[in-house]
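Support reply, case 0932

Customer input (verbatim):
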Amino acid sequence: MGLGGDDQKVNADAQKVSVVIPALNEEKSIASTIAALKACSPPVHEILVVVAQGNSDKTAQIARKAGAHRVITRSPRGRSSQQNLGANAAKGDIVCFVHADTHVPPQLVQETRRQLAKPDVALGAFRPVIVDDTRQTNNDKVMKFSSWHNANKTWIYPFLLKPYDACRGLRVVFGDQSIFVRREDFKQVGGYDEKLAIMEDADLCLRMHKSGAKTGRRRRIVQSHLPARTSGRRIVELGGEIKATYAHACIGFGWALGLSPARIRRMYESIYMGDDPR
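Our regenerated output:
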């Protein structure tokens, strides 16, 4: 199955979906993330958890107990490296990258198959719903501004920063939206850029969009209407929704303006000081 899907030989309903979860010190969230995946109908083909070097908690043990089909330990640290390693080990026709603190919709398999059955779609992701799960209550509060902003920046930023590409189907989706892609397409563009500590997902979107340029038909990036619920703990740690949005926008604009990976990494590290798969 090559780029663009024109030569698809496998019926869309028979395509297997592999899920790759990069993780680092995620013992508090990994079990519920896997539980949401195991509740999918039709079921996913496999769940691969890739635990980075330096992990100091029981993420791997809990992932195995929760039902992960394979747990890869001692991966090079960095989300791009972890996800590339997981994709190389995956056996499915479609790979879905799910963050360790994200709950996917139960229709994940059906929706990824449906979207990628369209030859002009290169890559997709789900609509983000950000929740504040840091409070000591049973009900997580939806962070409405962050959820709205994250859903709409998929098209706002491309039209602001890359209008030519945006008019031809470019959208920018991010990792907490659970990105999905044909495995062979992902391999042909070289996977995630491991030099990038952040914005690796936007970079992948741009390369996947341009992958059909040789045929004269750039391919679309799509956002599903189905929600993926993800933790807003990082937003809380940064001081709230407005401050986090400003910080992330600075990084995004820096990437779009061509700042070096080293410069973007320094920007990222100046914002995030805690544990993170990157």
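We compared this against your earlier run and they match. Two observations from our side: Residues 4-9, 274-278 have pLDDT under 50 and may be disordered. The chain has eleven helices and nine strands. Please reopen the case if you see a mismatch on your end.
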